Amino acid sequence: MPLPLPLQPMLVSEAWQCTDAGHEGAPKLESFFVGQVVGSFSRLRPAAEITRQITGDCEVRLAELAAPLPAGAPAAP
Question: 12, 44, 53, 63 — which has fewest CB within 10 A?
Answer without folding.
Answer: 44
